Amino acid sequence: MADHFDVLVIGGGLVGASFACAMAGSGRRIGLVEALLPSTEPSPGEVERTTALAWGSRALFERWGLWSAIAGEAAPIRHLHVSQQGRFGVTRVDHADYGVEALGYVLPNHALAGALYQRLGEDEAVSVIAPARFEHLEPGEEQVTLTISEDGRPRTLTTRLVVGADGAGSAVRSALGIGADIRDYGQQAVVASIRASRPPGDTAYERFTPAGPIAILPRSPETAALVWTLPTDEAAQRCADDEEAFLAALQAAFGQRLGHFDQLGPRGAYPLKRVICPRPIAERALLVGSAGHHLHPAAAQGFNLALRDVTVLAGLMQLADDPGDAALLETWREARRADQQRVSGFTDGIVRLFSNRLPGLGLARGLGLTGLELLPGIKHDMARRSMGLAFAADG
């Protein structure tokens, strides 16, 4: 006989686990299918992965009672410095202008995942099924029947709602036949921890270069988190470089604002593409996180957008008799569509603008950065949206 759930989440990464936490205490039986067992001892590569959490997202974690568990690992971003390589024009954003303690925070992924899974382990209504892989599904009028592979053996599950949270290459999306607009940027993000002679403190730096943006974010008093976007071939070369060559190339691209880069942690790289599902719902199923909208890491909006998606979804389900009701799924899609379109369009737009090498655009980009400084109303509106302040106030 198949195990039955009210909601079955496929993909136990940060987004899937966050949704399960948002549903904790709801009285619903939640299943979370994840390919990897949560690890208390992350690998060196996992240690280097970080997530930028907007101020509004902190408010959500406080609502779920999770902030105290991760606050000690959170490096605050109180200032933002945006510039363009080889051109004039700088935009600065300061937390004090918005009456908040910080614009956002940088958190190690393993610390964030650890807090989420600890909370899930405390809820008897949540079942974490790992290691296991999604294989197949059959939608039905009253429930969805799924086949997963657990320890190499098939297992059948049924649920009233399937939530696909299995990443940009979502197998759930393919099984449901949900269409997606996919754009390959031809880039990879190289991630690492670095040390500089002048640590960034509580300032996040975003520097746009013709090859792609460089983000250097606070991580600890001595180190910073690097996310360096490069064309795929160049990213492979940088990952193969020895430490001296890598730091020299980074220094040439970023400049001297942080002094001299003198130490490098383990490196990793992942490909960048934009995945947008115009209609991320199907019969008794929907997609969240990168499965439904995968964004370029410029502006660090992907996870924060996904948190807003799952928060609204969880809120709607608290009021519904049937979590897979078609009208409920349509209500969620309509409620989230404007925010999704605005954030994905903004992120894609700045990547295309600042990576375009057409003559004259460098000057225009510099004027644009300067214009943001001269037009504080526009800058403040953009900053508030990036911090998720409007959502935090309404949520």
Automatic annotation (TrEMBL):
Pfam families: FAD_binding_3. Its EC number is 1.14.13.-. Keywords: FAD, Flavoprotein, Monooxygenase, Oxidoreductase. Coiled coil: none annotated. It comes from the Bacteria. Pathway: Cofactor biosynthesis; ubiquinone biosynthesis. GO terms for molecular function: oxidoreductase activity. It is an enzyme of class 1 (oxidoreductase). Its cofactor is FAD. Residues 5-343 form the FAD-binding domain. PANTHER family: 2-OCTAPRENYL-6-METHOXYPHENOL HYDROXYLASE, UBIQUINONE BIOSYNTHESIS MONOOXYGENASE COQ6, MITOCHONDRIAL. Belongs to the UbiH/COQ6 family. This is 2-octaprenyl-6-methoxyphenyl hydroxylase. It comes from Spectribacter acetivorans.
